[in-house]
Design a protein that fits this description.
The chain is an alpha/beta fold. It folds into 2 domains: 310 residues, Aminopeptidase; 179 residues, Glucose Oxidase, domain 1, CATH 3.50.30.30. Helix content is 31%, strand content 23%. The protein has 15 helices and 23 strands. The strands form 4 sheets. Strands 1, 2, 3, 12, 15, 16, 19, 20, 21, 22 and 23 form an 11-stranded mixed sheet that branches. Strands 5-4-14-7-10-11-13-6 form an 8-stranded mixed sheet. The chain has a two-stranded antiparallel sheet with strand order 8-9. Helix 12 links the parallel strand 21 and strand 22. Helix 3 crosses helix 10, helix 10 crosses helix 15 and helix 12 crosses helix 15. The longest helix is centred in the middle third of the chain and has 20 residues.
Length: 547
């Protein structure tokens, strides 16, 4: 992310000779020498390009993609394909060359969708458990219905550790049983020792070796992520790449506190009591004395999703085989089983609109960039960066010739007002950071550190698919002038109420000029990368500077 503060002082002491040179050279050659990547002033060519970046393009494409008839642009669903065609038609209108399958703009990917149906039913003894309220199924979901009928056994944390002198499975017969464990750890336990002993993979492996038939995990919510939020996501359609290998493990349920109490009914101890004792360090494993029974009804669907890819060929015969990529994901969460549409306006129709406006400017330049420029609208980001991962592993341009990726994906903070603060995710790893610094300085704005480091944003969007292939990458995020904490608080509120929900719609109070500001930054950074003599490189201390 990048954030811009205030206007910087304009440099006044330009030499008359340099000004005259700029005036005289341009008419003679019809172009200016490429601006140095780290220049803290904008060239006349860059200022002209900015003036042509049309905020109405951003508004129109964002609004069109977020309309109800796009059906939430679901991955592998009709709405997603409708959005892909819309973007392919736009790329064709701009005059980009197709870079998809069979000389089209579309790169097809086959997906499998899986949904747990609301008519699924489970009982713990005689108590009914309601899907979505008492429990959800953890992904990856099975591809067919699951029948339950097995005794329930509580195994505390499920930890077996000689170092901690602890065996939560002692004297328990787990073969064919559904085990219930508490997520977390006891109070006052050595953190390092517990992390080693309670390694999830080792714990699950040990339980599988005991022959369990299912796993129920309790204590999965928190104040920041309550069970209701977890349920909101995990009751939706889940998506995977078609024919993906599914792990051969028993079904795993995540259970709310209320659902857990139903599991403990008649065991001689409430769930709350068991949790309290476990957190105090006691091992309270026991047979719960009742059977979990019922059926999870699973619906699967097969569908095609598409990346949308177009390219503007570079003008330099020695550099045009290299390419800069602009990326943004166009997918959202589609329509759920209840018929709710997820418009995905801020995340990420807005990012696609910004990328599209940049593409419009590049195609209208009288002098095309030296390197080729690829515009890549990807699908499947919300389910695991599937579209960008697919393109990175099945590139329609040699991945070794991709010099950088500039990614647009965010939470709509750029429309809070004119952008004056910039966060550049990935800027610290390559010399793209210096280019970004110079462009932001030239705009009179300010770069700030990641305001939400706890979110791990750098690893959560499509640029990271390029990073893993060794391509220096950058994702931009912008915010308004003033106290950073104020707009970050607004963003966190949006994350709690609108993010990945039907409420992520285009709003009348959006300041569209802010979206142009962030697109301007991306445009100029891209122009400098496309025209520089040398391609961007990883910094010597970057963890990604490796084969």
């Amino acid at each position: 992310m990048k954030i811009r503060f205030g206007l910087k002082t304009i440099v006044r002491d330009l030499s008359v000779s340099l000004i005259m040179a700029a005036l005289l050279i341009a008419p003679v050659y019809g172009q200016q020498t490429a601006t140095a990547p780290n220049s803290t002033t904008l060239s006349a060519t860059e200022r002209e390009a900015e003036s042509k970046l049309n905020v109405d393009t951003i508004r129109t494409i964002t609004s069109d993609l977020a309309k109800p008839d796009m059906e939430g642009r679901g991955t592998g669903l009709l709405g997603g394909q409708k959005a892909a065609k819309y973007l392919a038609d736009y790329f064709a209108k701009l005059g980009l060359q197709p870079l998809g399958d069979n000389k089209t703009f579309l790169q097809a990917i086959q997906f499998t969708g899986t949904t747990v149906m609301p008519d699924s039913s489970l009982k713990a003894g005689n108590a009914s458990l309601k899907f979505g309220e008492d429990y959800v199924l953890a992904p990856p979901l099975p591809d067919k219905k699951v029948d339950f009928k097995a005794p329930l056994v509580f195994i505390t944390y499920g930890v077996v550790s000689p170092d901690l002198k602890r065996d939560d499975l002692a004297n328990l017969d787990l073969k064919g049983k559904i085990v219930v464990l508490i997520s977390g750890q006891p109070k006052n336990v050595d953190q390092a020792a517990w992390q080693k002993a309670a390694n999830p993979q080792a714990t699950l492996g040990n339980l599988l070796s005991k022959g369990i038939s299912g796993l129920i995990i309790t204590n999965v919510g928190s104040a920041q992520q309550p069970f209701s939020l977890i349920s909101n996501y995990l009751t939706r359609r889940q998506v995977s790449v078609a024919n993906a290998i599914r792990p051969n493990i028993p079904p795993r349920l995540l259970v709310s506190d209320a659902g857990a109490e139903k599991l403990f009914a008649g065991s001689g101890m409430t769930y709350a009591q068991a949790k309290e004792k476990a957190e105090a360090g006691e091992t309270v494993s026991r047979d719960l004395g009742q059977t979990l029974s019922g059926t999870l009804n699973i619906k699967t669907d097969e569908g095609t999703g598409s990346n949308v890819v177009g390219v503007l060929e570079g003008s330099d015969p020695n550099l045009k085989d290299q390419a800069l990529v602009y990326s943004a994901h166009y997918d959202a969460y589609g329509i759920d089983a209840a018929g709710r549409i997820f418009p995905g306006a801020a995340d990420n129709a807005l990012g696609v609109g910004e990328m599209a406006a940049i593409a419009e400017v590049f195609t209208k330049m009288s002098k095309k960039p030296r390197r080729s420029v690829i515009f890549l609208a990807v699908t499947g980001e919300e389910h695991g960066l599937y579209g960008s991962e697919h393109w990175a592993h099945n590139p329609t341009w040699p991945i070794g010739k991709v010099v950088a990726d500039l990614n647009f994906d965010g939470i709509g903070s750029e429309v809070y007002g004119p952008v004056k603060q910039i966060v550049g995710y990935g800027a610290e790893f390559s010399d793209l950071g210096k280019t970004l610094d110079s462009v932001v300085a030239a705009e009179g704005d300010k770069i700030i550190p990641d305001p939400v480091p706890d979110e791990g944003v750098f690893y959560r969007s499509d640029h990271f698919s390029f990073v893993k292939q060794g391509v220096p990458s950058l994702m931009l995020l912008g915010g308004p002038d003033g106290d950073t904490a104020m707009w970050v608080a607004k963003a966190r509120k949006w994350l709690a109420t609108d993010y990945h929900s039907p409420a992520d719609v285009v709003r009348p109070d959006w300041v569209w000029a802010g979206s142009k500001d962030i697109a301007d930054i991306g445009l100029i950074v891209g122009m400098r990368v496309a025209d520089a003599d040398a391609a961007p490189a990883w910094l010597p201390n970057s963890p990604f500077k490796r084969p």
